[in-house]
Amino acid sequence: EPQHKVKSREREQAAYMELQILDAWPLVYEVELEVPESKGLTREHRRIDRASISASLAPTITGLYNVEVGSSDHKAVVLHLAPEDSTGMSRRTIPAEIIRMPEFQTQMQQELLAMEHMQGDEWWKRMEEVAHSISAELKGQSKRWDSGLWKMEEALRKSSIQKLTGAAKKILAENGVPYSESATGYQKLHTIITRSRAEQRRKQLVSRVKEAIQETWDQEVEGQSTILEKKSGRQERVVKLLQQMMSRKQTTVVKLQNGKVVSGVNDVGKAMGEFWKSIMVSPAKTAQECEAFIQTLEPPRSWKTAMEVLWKIPSYNIVLTALEKLDPTSAPGEDGIPAILFQLFAEFFVPRILIKIDSIARTGVWGTRWGRGIMRSIPKEAGNLAVDKQRPITLLNAKTKWITGTMKICLQDFLMMMVPPEQKGFMPGRNMDGHLFKVMEIQSQNRKGVWVSIDFLKAYDKVGHSMIEGLLRYIGMEEHWIRMLMEFMKEELGFLVGSKVAETWFKPDGGIRQGDSLSPAIYVMVTVILCILLKKEMPEIVALLYADDTLLWIPGDMEDVCSKLRKLKDVMFKYAEFTGQEMNVGKSKVVLQGDWDLRII
Fold this sequence. Notes:
It comes from Eutreptiella gymnastica. By secondary structure, the protein is α+β, with helices and mostly antiparallel strands. It has helices spanning 3-10, 50-57, 96-99, 102-114, 120-142, 144-158, 166-174, 182-223, 227-245, 265-279, 287-296, 302-310, 316-325, 339-344, 346-363, 398-418, 433-444, 465-474, 479-489, 518-537, 558-579; strands spanning 15-20, 28-34, 45-49, 64-69, 74-78, 89-90, 253-255, 261-263, 373-379, 390-396, 449-454, 493-497, 500-501, 542-546, 549-555, 589-593. The chain has 3 domains: 3-78, no CATH class; 89-245, no CATH class; 261-593, no CATH class. α4 (102-114) runs antiparallel to α5, α13 (316-325) packs across α15 (346-363) and α15 (346-363) packs across α19 (479-489).
């Protein structure tokens, strides 16, 4: 890239971009390399050019560099290392477009009919094997173009800048690409693969978008929607699909808190496991102590009597409703099966899910590959590979989300009664309008006081299991349902690194999953404790909550406000002591309102 363009861009605001090594690299750049020492590369600050890249980096790197462009030196962070890591467990998934194929549905129905005599986990295991077998067969028939791309990748993997295999030379000749030496040929083969992969992705994207639009049109004919609703529905469908297809790359390299850079599926999985196990812990309180604490808050008496009336026993219709609420194409969990398969063959699956729910409730055992989740980490900030700057997304099996979604429906009526109007998050029929109007009302009166915005440290990941168990027992939920929910939250978590699952699994001591509809409902129940605690200890304040986002209005003059802030600190400490919801002082804010004399503040 010409130097004048580099200097021009440096004057602009810092931007993030991806450059492909061996394809497009500046002639001279100031860079800071951060790579694993095990690869024989040192971490230093030096000038490199295309020649030094070929000599020292090309044998090791075939993937992508993250380049942060700004006024400071350009920083390059190795994301993908070659050869491809052979550790970890491969993850099979069945694409939704394969399940939509008539050939798949015909074969699957035949197999399901032939399996009717089987029972329990044997039936579910056989179903997974059959579904993946049919999918693999249809993939082989329908993706002949992919086969060519796979051969290219194999040729690149077996080649190097010192030597090209016969297959690599043949591919270059077929594409009419001349080369004078192995290093040049290796780079050009990488370029061909990159372009071919991009073309394949473009074709898949166009095909998926066309299918989505056609499905939306079909639904419009059935629903007779208005023109505005039709247009809005089409846009939402296509935008959501594009977001799924164009999502950011997940982390394949992380930087530990001591500064060491770790790569490799199992090493990254181990590092992530150690970090999240240290985060997902519960306070040193038992469920009995938490239940006694709730009793001291004097919650509404209706809690104990309403559960028996409002709790819904799982039934065929409830299970079917939960199935219909699942996103048919969302990323599946360990078994690799999206919800659309269960939705297309609901008559086979609904009765067996009911049986499974009853089995888990009686035994408290979810079973192999039912409750486990896979955590996929995405950097919160582009290019930031620090282990504590990753956003974990838990991928659960669609059948697991189906069960937890059923439990959410069973609990919903009680939640609507239990959760006060101060909490708007994850509650059907509630939105932020009421909170906004309240804020505008207080501001319009120009009353003297302070607004306190509270941020919680790893809110979802630090919820105490003992508090959840104590709360569920206090409200009168039957013991077998409590055992079922608690076992789900304590099930193992693994890590998806690139396209493979690391061998590290751990059982969390605290925290809730963020990949199903039940977990947010459980979190909202815990926030009810905060609402009651604030109302009991500080009845004069106004609390406005949306999930873990908490805004408090504290009226009064300086002396009064300072006294209340000290009391609020004690209240939040008590709340954290039992729930694990620790206030993040660094991100929490206090904003003054009214006529304050700033000279004495």
